[in-house]
Design goal:
The complex is a heterodimer of chains A (about 325) and B (about 350). With about 325 residues, chain A is mainly α. Chain A has a single domain, classed as Orthogonal Bundle (ABC transporter involved in vitamin B12 uptake, BtuC). The longest helix of chain A is centred in the N-terminal third of the chain and has 33 residues. The radius of gyration of chain A is 20 Å and the shape is globular. By secondary structure, chain B is mainly α. In chain B, about 70% of the residues lie in helices and about 5% in strands. Chain B has 13 helices and 4 strands. In chain B, strand 2 and strand 3 form a beta hairpin. The radius of gyration of chain B is 22 Å and the shape is globular. Classes of the chains: A mainly alpha (about 325), B mainly alpha (about 350). At the A-B interface, helix 3, helix 4, helix 9 and helix 11 of A face strand 1, helix 6, helix 11 and helix 13 of B.
Chain lengths: ~325, ~350
């Protein structure tokens, strides 16, 4: 009984650690999509964030500086997406895809170039300063709940950030304006809300959080930078937004679900199961598809549409 | 003073040609800055890339080797993109095509006459790719499940499956990875250097697709679905069925690309089947503005960037991913520029109030 509890606590601990980057990215994407902009560049932003965060921490010795740089990179990439989709009215899907393609190439270039000369410029395999788990005395010893208190500081930050994100979205004037822009930009515009500014702002915010999530991968979750460190997490985060029906609190639930799959995967592999590793590794991706199918089917059935009505559509004031 | 976008009455032809060219130049400039900042001489690097890609018969044929899968997957995604179905699963469809072709070549053609093995292996690749694309198509057509995510997720599944096969299930005894070499009856002939007959398939298919898009009712239907679903419905077009049909074709083309890769190049299933052609295909198709004939040429250009990248990795010890950065960069100015093909920019002076 005690052993089962300990095991469960351990799984929960890994679950939360694996879900952290997803929560950052998904909460950011929720804000972006609430303004009416779909950002498929998440994967590229997380990758570039991860590599620049690691390189910065490696050379300066400060993981916090790494997080800052990753946030900055995410913001720049998101600003490009905002410029293309809001100002230049480019197709949001194609723009996001190109940001991801660009980010993937850039991250792999930087990973092979920013490392020390002794390692041929390669960052892979380097060990740098990182965020280690900080166990909170007493609390971390409680079974099950203890999992919440054996995390790194970036995960602890979420305990503040997520409630704040929920509060801001539903209870503040700015949150109301944001939702108005995503639902009905014409009316929002008529009410005096600057649609363009709002969309830029929240797209850049989303990019910042994606970069943050990427930094968590290379500075806390994984032992360092590896090629393709995200393994599709940017895409899974976008699926989480649909699962969460554009609600930050529910995104946490989804991220825990996916983190849980990761944790169970580790557990099974460690216990020497006969199921081939490849099949276990497929689980998060198959799960994403399943979740999408169920969510879409349920939305069709209940006639509830979670997506902001203006999502994916350019807003043109001049057009009559 | 205010800047106003005015919709053009017809798409500007000059902008259609100019925008991709300018975009390519912008991406080269950006790449040069990146190279310079990271301590490499951009001019020397670019010269080495050009020389590596087209400076020798070997370079040219290697460029064609990479152009073949890019042409086929570029055509594949262009079919789906035409109806604004965002198939970003060409990578997985290619991989599974390669797996199925390898399966026929190695295991599933025992006892059949030798001359049937190659066509059967190619057919298996085509069918596997088509079915793999069919899953997200059916989910989209009948349940409205977002296709960008499902097609992408299936890439990971297909790649993991192929890895399982060449690392474990189908691994040849005595090797760390990779299957046994296929029997010669399953080899797709090479026609120039290592470039195989897939090149001819790609050219023929591009011409066929061009004709289909331009002259057939089905080509017209896909275009209407992409531009205006409501209009398509009024015209009595069966949207769901067309999505499935177009995606089967799209997946089939990617599956063929995978089959050509394993049957004509590696001639065994091994690491290196999935190297991102299916993603570069998105750049190829969009830069070619979904025109099948133009796709052939853009594919060669993108292949040259990849081969150039490989060459500077070997000769100058610079990361081959320079090629990927340049490719990834191209669409960004291109998207910014697309507005000029559809809109005219006018500067409006504020009206003077009396």
């Amino acid at each position: 009984m005690i052993e089962a509890l300990l095991l469960l606590t351990q799984i929960l601990t890994i679950t939360l650690r694996a879900g952290t980057s997803l929560i950052y990215a998904a909460v950011g994407e929720i804000y972006t999509e609430r303004s009416g902009i779909l950002n498929l560049g998440l994967e590229g932003m997380m990758l570039t964030g991860a590599v620049t965060a690691f390189a910065t921490a490696f050379y300066t010795g400060s993981p916090w500086l790494g997080v800052l740089v990753a946030m900055g990179i995410g913001m720049i990439m998101a600003a490009i997406h905002a410029f293309l989709t809001v100002t230049m009215r480019a197709n949001q899907v194609v723009s996001g895809l190109s940001i991801t393609l660009f980010g993937t190439g850039l991250a792999s270039f930087l990973g092979e170039r920013l490392g020390p000369a002794s390692n041929n410029g390669n960052l892979v395999g380097m060990v740098g300063p990182r965020f280690s788990p900080l166990e909170i005395p007493v609390l971390s010893q409680v079974p099950l709940v203890g999992a919440l208190f054996k995390q790194d500081i970036l995960t602890y930050l979420l305990y503040v950030l997520v409630p704040l994100a929920v509060y801001y979205l539903y209870k503040t004037r700015n949150g109301l304006n944001l939702r108005a822009v995503g639902e009905d930009p014409q009316t929002a515009d008529a009410m005096g809300i600057d649609v363009t500014r709002t969309r830029y702002l929240y797209t850049i915010l989303g990019g910042m959080l994606a970069g943050f999530g990427g930094a968590h991968l290379s500075l806390a979750y994984a032992p360092g930078w590896t090629e393709n460190i995200t393994g599709g997490r940017g895409w899974i985060a976008i699926a989480l937004v649909i699962f969460a029906m554009w609600d930050p609190a529910r995104a946490v639930l989804g991220a825990i679900l996916f983190g849980g799959i990761n944790a169970v995967q580790f557990r099974l592999q460690a216990s020497g199961t006969t199921i081939p590793a490849a099949y276990l590794n497929m689980l998060p991706y198959l799960m994403t598809i399943l979740v999408l199918v169920i969510m879409t089917w349920w939305e069709n059935l209940s006639h509830r549409i979670g997506a902001p009505a203006a999502l994916g559509k350019a807003y043109m004031r001049e057009e009559k | 003073m205010r800047i106003v976008f005015e919709k053009r009455e017809s798409v500007s032809r000059r902008a259609t040609v100019l925008v991709p060219v300018v975009s390519f130049v912008v991406s080269l400039i950006f790449g040069a800055i990146l190279l310079a900042v990271s301590g490499a001489n951009p001019f020397v690097t670019y010269a080495a890339m050009v020389k590596g890609a087209v400076g020798s018969w070997y370079g040219i044929t290697e460029t064609l080797v990479k152009a073949i899968p890019l042409m086929l997957t570029g055509l594949a995604v262009s079919v789906a993109f035409r109806m604004r179905f965002w198939n970003i699963g060409a990578e997985g469809q290619l991989t599974l095509g390669g797996v199925a072709a390898a399966g026929v070549a190695l295991y599933w053609s025992q006892g059949l006459p030798g001359w049937t093995v190659l066509p059967l292996a190619i057919l298996a690749g085509i069918v596997a790719g088509a079915l793999w694309a069919g899953i997200p198509a059916v989910l989209k057509a009948y349940l409205k499940v977002d296709e960008t995510l499902t097609t992408l997720m299936l890439n990971y599944v297909a790649i993991l499956y192929s890895e399982h096969l060449y690392y474990i299930a189908w691994r040849a005894p005595g090797y760390n990875s990779g299957t046994a070499k296929f029997p010669e009856t399953a080899w797709l002939p090479q026609i120039a250097g290592r470039a195989n007959v897939g090149l001819i398939f790609a050219i023929i298919l591009a011409i066929l697709l061009w004709l289909v898009f331009k002259y057939t009712r089905w080509g017209f239907e896909l275009k209407i679905i992409g531009e205006n679903q409501t209009a398509a419905r009024y015209l009595g077009i069966n949207i769901a069925w067309n999505i499935v049909l177009a995606l089967l074709l799209s997946g089939a083309l990617s599956g063929l690309a995978g089959a050509c890769e394993v049957l004509g190049l590696s001639r065994r299933l091994q690491q290196g089947l999935s190297v991102g052609y299916g993603y570069t295909a998105i750049i190829v198709a969009w830069m070619a503005q979904l025109n099948p004939i133009v796709i052939l040429f853009v594919a060669i250009l993108m292949a040259a960037l990849l081969v150039g990248g490989d060459q500077i990795q070997m000769k100058m010890r610079l990361p081959a991913s320079v090629g990927l950065v340049l490719q990834g960069m191209i669409l960004i100015p291109m998207l910014a520029g697309t507005i000029f093909t559809e809109y005219r920019i006018r500067i409006v002076r504020p009206e003077k109030h009396a």
